Here is the input.
Amino acid sequence: MQIHQEEIVALNKDLLVEHKEKLTQLSRKHSNLEDIIDTISNYNIAIPSWALGAGGTRFGKFGFGGEPSTLEQKLEDISVINALTKSANAVSLHIPWDIPKNTNAIKEKATHLGLHFDAMNSNTFQDQDNQEYSYKFGSLCHTDKNVRDQAVAHNKAVIDYGIALGSKSLTVWLADGSNFPGQLNFRRAFENTLASLKEIYAHLPADWKLFIEYKPYEPNFYSMVIQDWGTSHMLAKDLGEQAYTLVDLGHHLPNTNIEHIVATLMTRGMLGGFHFNDSKYGDDDLSVGVMKPYQLFLIFNELVFGMENNPANNPIPAWMIDASHNLKDPLEDLIQSIEAIETAYAKALLIDQKALEEAQLKNDVVTAQRILQDAFNTDVKTILAEARLRNDGAIDPISAYRSLDVRNVLIKERGMNSKATGL
Ligand code: LRH
Ligand code: MN
Ligand code: MN
Here is the structure.
């Protein structure tokens, strides 16, 4: 399945007049509208290769048909999302869920579809069939050096796949930890993890980055070796300049002030990557922006400020959606997530930074709040639509997806029972 340009142009036609009218109205109100449209139209978010099939919980998984059963098909699905949104030109691979059998052919296919490979993800949280040692009691932190060596070798192999595919970064997320007090010596586990990470780091090409993802609980429920941004930051600092912290929105205890963490990491140039999702309780992996859109906006406020005021040279973070699709068609769900991310970003770009600074310097709390909320309450749908339009994307991607009947075309192509690898 591939969407052709003419199909999108035809679907846009009916919406064009109304859209342009709204744009004219908006440009009267906002003098920096062109800059915002430009920023959004250049913004892209990586799609993880494991998010294109049905997700689920340990209690069940419900398929919806037409799932991509090969990496090639996964790339095709991402290119459908990208054709409509023009904001998803990269894929993030999880190894071994998506091992490219022929890296050259996969790279060529991706290039042909206008895609490239963003961060690679290693997996030492599950045992694979042909594996010698088990990760039941951890991987990089394990008490047995054989297990640690095996996990290090896996991460090096993932880097090698990434080199062949043109990726420039590795994300390490560890499930390592303990379920019961007394099970694990915290300090020994930390030192083992650091020593293992040092070996992986030594294998990184000079132009690569290493992202260390943290998570307070799950699958271990008493302790996680890399439980929070402080631990991730300590490890990254000990490794060297190519190592950074990665923030996954779902990896925080309830009510954590994530925007504050983002600001603090950027002050030191240490925010390397970002996993978007939303949650009500824990690592729910719901579509972005469904629960806490204001929080996402406040996070983007810090990201915008951090990217514009950047003495510590924080790199542009590697953006990725990390959600699970249990009820909705994953392609529609990913499109909705992209729209939610760009909505928060556009609203943050609308914040009058100068006025906000003045209010802050005067301790005028009321005005500061009004500045933020004026931006948050602005309808930015037209900005997003115009950004897509300028890249030949769809004015209304979800409607276009449905008009083109994409899911049924995929079901016809791949059948009702095809299964995607992943969570
Ligand atoms: C862990 C996580 C991590 C994994 C992905 C599948 O909860 O967020 O990023 O790689 O989920
Ligand atoms: Mn994640
Ligand atoms: Mn997660």
The chain has a mean pLDDT of 97.
